Amino acid sequence: MQESQIAVVTGGAGFIGSHMTDRLLQAGYAVRVIDNLVGGRVSNLAHHARNPLLSLEECDICDLQPDSSIFKDVRYVFHFAGIGDIVPSIEQPIEYMATNVQGTVRTLEAARHGGRSTLQRFVYAASSSCYGLAATPTREDYPIQPQYPYALSKYQGEQAVLHWGQVYDLPVNSMRIFNAYGPRVRTTGAYGAVFGVFFRQKLAGKPYTVVGDGTQSRDFIYVTDVVEAFYMAAQSPHVGEIYNVGADNPQSILYLVELLGGNVNSGDVIFIPKRPGEPDCTWANAGKIIHQLGWQPKVTFETGVQTMLKDIENWRDAPLWDPDSIAKATATWFQHMDKK
Q: How far apart are CA 214 and CA 327, in angstroms?
């Protein structure tokens, strides 16, 4: 490219967003990252510190104005900014709806005005949590049944994205991410992602806290495979589409323990109560994205876990969870989700 095309990555200092930034810089784009640095970290972009094609704007998407200069002449927008985690969404639904729905609307408007003559694609990071307790493998046309405010907010954000495509002819695609993992996955904060919990327990020599009986499975998808799906969705002629982004290959939690060197029969595991509203299995039917975009996941679960283990020291300062602290952290979950 003679003059670099412009891409905006919201949440670009976060887990998936920083890998998206890597991919775009590698392809020669000028990348404007928007991040309020609550969930994101400048250190996730430190390896690009001297790259003149990267700029970081520290701001909140809820404060974006339609005439924001960040979006001027933008070609691609990748919208990852938002707040995650289940329990905090049950405790703070207003904040989740404000950020994940209204923040998305503000991002859409900034993209619509700033990219009036240049925007080629707005790609939204949706969540497979919209499916709730779904039949598996789950297709994009399966019923939507969000179980908690986080899932609802991400789905309503997706509805806004598709609506802007319909009303304003914005070229949009929505990517329903399943269980993304990989380097830079969040290490601190609320009780949540299994990797952060298990890695810290491994470092401390403590038992792994396994929910239920551990046979439940998740469709783990490695972060660089997620990023490639987004990149291809931006380059593709297909617009107004929803795609599942998953490996189509669920892995059990007990198998993850095994890959981390744990032994269920040697006291390395403590089982804690199964949580209401959580599926026993998440499993993406990835047929649509494979067929339409030619995307294929490349990183096996075993390789992905081994790659993450090389950087396990990054989890040294993460919270160390045990059954008691998990019970306290998830009390609201059981209070509102257990309808028995």
A: 17
Question: Which amino acid would we find at residue 266?
Answer: S
Q: Which CATH number fits domain 182-219+249-283+299-337: 3.40.630.10, 2.60.120.10, 3.90.25.10, 3.10.290.10?
A: 3.90.25.10
d(CA 131, CA 152) in angstroms, rounded, equals 10
The domain segmentation of the chain, as residue ranges, is 6-180+221-245, 182-219+249-283+299-337
Catalytic site positions: 150
Phi-psi group of 132: left, alpha or beta (phi > 0 → left; psi -120 to 50 → alpha; rest → beta)? left
Find residue 270's DSSP bridge partners: 209
Distance of CA 44 to the CA centre of its chain: 15
- In this structure, the number of other CB atoms found within 10 A of the CB of residue 232 comes to 18
CATH of domain 6-180+221-245: 3.40.50.720
Q: Is 207 exposed, middle or buried (0-12, 13-18, 19+ CB in 10 A)?
A: middle
Phi, then psi, of 269 in degrees rounded to 5: -130, 135
Query: Which residues in the chain show pLDDT less than 70?
Result: 1-2, 187-191, 339-340
**Which CA distances in Å does 125 have to 100, 171, 174?**
10, 15, 6
pLDDT for position 276:
84
For tokens 């250190």, name the residue.
43
Residue 240 one-letter amino acid: G
Is residue 40 helix, strand or coil?
coil
